[in-house]
Write a structure and sequence with these properties.
Blueprint: H1 5-11, H2 17-27, H3 33-41, H4 48-60, H5 66-76, H6 85-92, H7 95-104, H8 110-122, H9 129-135, H10 141-153, H11 160-166, H12 172-184, H13 191-198, H14 203-208, H15 216-222, H16 228-240, H17 247-254, E1 262-267, E2 274-279, H18 282-285, H19 290-307, H20 312-324, H21 331-340, H22 344-353, H23 360-372, H24 379-389, H25 418-434, H26 438-450, H27 456-467
Antiparallel strand pairs: 1-2
Length: about 475
């Protein structure tokens, strides 16, 4: 891989943010001075998103120049964007970074202060506890909510009295954050107080119950509520508690149907409480907002991965429905989960759909997964034949903001989109390399020689991995 460094460095000079982000991701994996110097050069990118990602990568690598460069970048951009930076400084965790965090804790903008408090909690900097204790009793409810959450996350036993006081706040979010902190500190009797708030239809409290065993029966009852948002949050909370009774509603959120439900996430003012929002008629509501569809896909993929913790029969029932109904946006994530849990029942399901007519994405992904699992059968030959047929397409296609062509969401799909083909091809080539498949590598060499010239460098990179 070190021999390919110059190619990755060149990618940082291309005037395309996606390529620069990919290059940064690869450079961050190297532990040498040349890669570090290249990452530093990315701080001069024309794209703010790339510079922010560079600052984050430098902080993760504990680079000695990370704090100075991040502070310089922060000074160049509007203060409205400053809430992004505390996470970078908190991850760095150096004395200089902590000095900046202490200064930002007194910033005039409440959003900046809240971002600092939440980042301190996330990275476990308990040396800030004295300041957070003071701030918990000051200013508005949003800051109090964030402070209460931080005190619970940092397991601050000396703040129990403060938290009990905040649990009586007239603001429901402050009460919830304080009750959650007390629960984390072992005061499990507060569960009934959280349930009392949830009975009012408060979505944050319903979502919070997913972290509190003993609330299952109440959540099951909420799944019959007339309000769709209450039902959705109750089902997701029940799934978090690994209760199979959540499945009927979870299936509605995962599998496309006449309601065409998308998922969104809502944060409280203090940024410490989260809940879900189920949006029907996603195609219509998000026609001009592809980012929302992309975020919805990530949330649904996370729910799907959580389903694997249920009894195998229940999870495979969901998997069977996704494959049968050609829920193509979830197929790549699903087969990855199936590959990581290769039981006899899983293998039987993959073999069943490896032969599904009129479903090329499902069929090819199941075939690929069976090949990766080294199951006896024609799966390797099938894969090599399909790859050879696709040798002239453009291999590198960035995933669009919209994971599938939304105009086809309610239509039967009998051919792959270019993006789907590209992703399948890359995964197939990687599988040849990972399996040390000599015939597969021969196919790779043949395609380098005879296929689309635009793919040469990417395929040579995969070949280099094969011979290492």
């Amino acid at each position: 891989m070190k021999k390919a460094l110059y190619i990755i460095e060149d990618a940082l000079t291309v005037d395309q943010p996606e390529l620069q982000m990919i290059a940064l991701n690869f450079l961050a994996r190297f532990q040498n001075d040349r890669a570090d110097r290249a990452i530093h050069r990315a701080m001069a990118s024309n794209f703010l998103l790339v510079r922010l990602e560079t600052a984050f990568q430098l902080a993760a690598k504990k680079d000695p120049k990370a704090v100075g460069q991040t502070e310089a970048l922060m000074a160049k951009i509007p203060e409205q964007i400053w809430p992004i930076f505390p996470q970078i400084f908190a991850q760095s965790g150096t004395p200089d970074a902590k000095k900046i965090l202490r200064r930002l804790l007194t910033h005039k903008d409440e959003l900046v202060r809240i971002a600092v408090i939440m980042s301190i909690a996330e990275y476990g900097h308990d040396d800030f506890l004295p300041q957070i204790r003071r701030m918990a009793m000051q200013h508005g409810p949003a800051q109090q909510e964030a402070c209460a959450t931080a005190l619970g996350h940092l397991k601050d036993e000396s703040s129990v009295d403060r938290l009990q006081q905040l649990a009586k706040s007239p603001n429901s979010n402050v009460r919830l954050a304080a009750l959650n902190a007390l629960y984390k500190l072992g005061r499990h009797e507060v569960l009934q107080d959280v349930i009392a708030i949830a009975k009012t239809g408060d979505l944050f409290s319903i979502a919070l119950l997913g972290e509190m065993p003993g609330s299952e029966e109440f959540l099951v009852a909420l799944m019959r509520n007339d309000n769709m948002q209450v039902r959705a949050n109750a089902a997701i909370a029940l799934l978090e508690l690994n209760d199979r009774r959540s499945l009927p509603l979870i299936a509605q959120l995962l599998i496309r149907n006449t309601h065409d439900i998308a998922l969104g996430k809502i944060s409280s003012q203090g940024k410490s409480l989260k809940s879900f929002r189920a949006i029907p008629s996603a195609l219509q509501n998000f026609e001009d907002n592809p980012v929302a569809l992309e975020l919805s896909l990530h949330l649904r993929e996370a729910l799907l991965e959580k389903c694997v913790e249920l009894p195998e029969k229940d999870f495979l029932g969901i998997a069977d429905a996704i494959l049968d109904l050609q829920q193509n946006d979830l197929v790549p994530a699903l087969v990855e989960v199936l590959e990581n849990h290769p039981t006899p029942a899983t293998i039987a399901l993959l073999k069943k759909y490896q032969q599904k007519i009129g479903a090329p994405l499902v069929r090819n992904y199941c075939n690929l997964t069976l090949y990766r699992l080294k199951e006896p059968g024609p799966y390797g030959d099938n894969l090599k034949a399909w790859v050879t047929q696709q040798q002239n397409i453009d291999l590198i296609r960035f995933r669009p903001l919209v994971p599938i062509d939304v105009r086809r969401m309610n239509d039967a799909v009998f051919e792959l989109t270019p993006q789907e083909t590209s992703r399948l091809l890359v995964e197939a080539f990687e599988s040849f390399v990972a399996n040390h498949d000599d015939n597969g590598v021969d196919v790779l060499i043949s395609i380098i020689q005879n296929g689309n010239k635009k793919n040469k460098y990417a395929l040579i990179g995969l070949l280099m991995r094969a011979i290492q």
